[in-house]
Amino acid sequence: MKKLLLVTLALALVMSLAPVSFAAEEEIVIGALYPRSGSLSLLGEESWRGAEIARIVRNQKGGINGKKIVFANADGSDVAAARSEAERLIEQKKVGLILGSYSSSRSMAATEVAARKNLPYFELGAIANAITERGYPTVYRTNSTAAGFSQGQVDFIIDYLAPALGKKPKDIKVSVAHEDSDYGTSVADSFKKLAAKAGLQVISVEPYTATSSDLSPVIFRLKKADPDVIVAVSYAQDAILLGRQAAEYKLQKPFIGTGGGHSLQSFQKALGDKANGVFNIDFTQYEVNTKFTPGLKEFLELYRKTYKEEPRSGHSLTNFMGANVVFDIVEKAGGKFDPDKIRAAAMAVDIPLGKTANGWGVKFNDKGQNTRASAFVTQWRDGKLLTVFPKGAAVTEPVLPSKK
Fold first, then answer.
1. 348 lies in the same domain as 206
2. Which of 83, 174, 196, 250 is deepest in the core (most CB within 10 A)?
3. Residues 345-385: tens digit of each pLDDT
4. C-alpha distance from residue 378 to each of 50, 188, 336, 351, 352 (Å)
5. Is there a single domain that holds both residue 239 and residue 382?
6. Are residues 151 and 163 in the same domain?
7. Residue 86 · residue 98 · CB < 8 Å
8. Are 166 and 232 members of one domain?
């Protein structure tokens, strides 16, 4: 799509342009539903920031068909709030389209509301497979899925970890520790199926509640299972607790996180040197081969200028990319939210891999899922989250974490 902003060549220059004037009535109002408070607020806010930067930049370029983009913001602090806020955005704010929402459980609830009312909903960050597997024609997702994350983990274990551990893939034993919401359960289910198909041994699965204050029982059961590799699926605070207690009880196995808390700077700050060596598969992070991510450096400059700090995870970049896709689809649909026109515009998008700021492409299948969204393996080293797999996106080779 020619007007796509994902590959903007001069984002920094855009920020210096003179403000564009819009008449008050010349507005396109889009619902932005994210958890901005509560236990998931950190990554919910970070996700919203990316979409907000995309909105600011697009308005400085003239908006959509000369109309200013305005977000009607909503706080999906929990599942019930996500459902009621989706209702409020549609019935009271009269939005014709909603984007969001980071959390899979929130997205499942909010997209159901939108689908029932025949209103387009674009998910930009939640990964549960079911979001785009329910046959809702007005639900779309620009980001990768739990199955995509799990496939990346399986590939990494087979291609790197098994040889590094001196074992054949069929001899690798894996345990999964996951928080028990739609996010963690979807990843765990996907991983079990894909690992079995690849010949890996999944020897134990340990679900837990993300708000737990003590995960030592999970750690003890993992130690008893004695896997070669542990796949973890965690939000922010439980990722930190899992890491701390794994170190405390000397569970010295390679960990592969699954986005969420394992990609946050707060994870590294809380664990310090104990974070070194932890792997994580996630959306594109910032230590990545920039030849694969045109526009990434400019996005970083925009983020720092807008929020006066460094990004806290790649979720902002992913939502920036996704929001730009949404804006272009709305423009292609004539600036209207007619579901049929939105669908026709969405299905016409055809962007190759490596042509957006986070390295993804865009091509929706008939379920509304972007089939060109990827997940990359990173590794914490000395305070940085370095992309290590696959080679095209990597900035360095992976290394086995040391046992201390």
1. no
2. 174
3. 999 999 999 999 999 999 999 999 999 999 999 999 999 99
4. 21, 19, 40, 25, 23
5. yes
6. yes
7. yes
8. yes
Spatial separation of the C-alpha atoms in residues 336 and 97, rounded to whole Å: 10
Over residues 245-281, the pLDDT tens digits come to 999 999 999 999 998 899 999 999 999 999 999 999 9
Residue showing tokens 């403000």 = 19
